[in-house]
Design a protein that fits this description.
Elements lengths: L1 H113 L27 H21 L1
């Protein structure tokens, strides 16, 4: 009995150990499965949250782009308006310059008629030239008037070249 019992005992022990290994392996497998399952569920939740964030960012990007396009349109309209105003301003400045020159020339003609300033213009009849009275030496002489006219013309030419 000793030999047989011992053999049976060993066989039973082997069976119990084998059963324990199988059961233990099944439990480890089940625990690993549950852990992986929880990890997958966590990953799915994180993925869903990330997708929601991406959608929110895409929506915000679309809205910002639309706002930016609106501002670009408004800016373009403002630039066109300012360009028009600048053109009008330039035209007004040119017209003002022409009026000033015309006014100065008219004043010059009036002075010439009064005999206050003597301007000698080529091919001008002698009757239009100022008389040689003694007070004429204190007035602007013909050379100075010509120089003033040249200065005005130079200023006008410079102004027009700047435009």
């Amino acid at each position: 009995m000793n030999g047989t019992a011992h053999g049976r005992y060993e066989s039973a022990a082997m069976a119990v150990v084998g059963l324990a290994i199988v059961v233990g392996a099944g439990c480890v497998s089940s625990g690993t499965y549950e852990a992986v399952k929880r990890e997958a569920e966590t990953a799915q939740r994180e993925l869903h949250q990330q997708r929601l964030k991406v959608q929110a960012i895409e929506k915000m990007h679309t809205e910002r782009k639309k706002e930016m396009d609106e501002w670009v349109g408004k800016l373009g309209a403002a630039v066109e308006k300012l360009d028009g105003m600048t053109k009008n301003w330039s035209e007004l400045q040119e017209e003002l310059t022409r009026l000033r020159i015309a006014r100065e020339l008219e004043r010059q003609r009036e002075r010439d008629k009064e005999g206050k300033i003597g301007i000698v213009v080529e091919n001008e009849p002698a009757s239009l030239q100022p008389s040689a009275d003694p007070s004429a030496r204190f007035r602007t002489g013909p050379g100075e008037s010509r120089e003033q006219a040249r200065d005005l013309l130079r200023q006008l030419q410079q102004f027009l070249e700047q435009r």
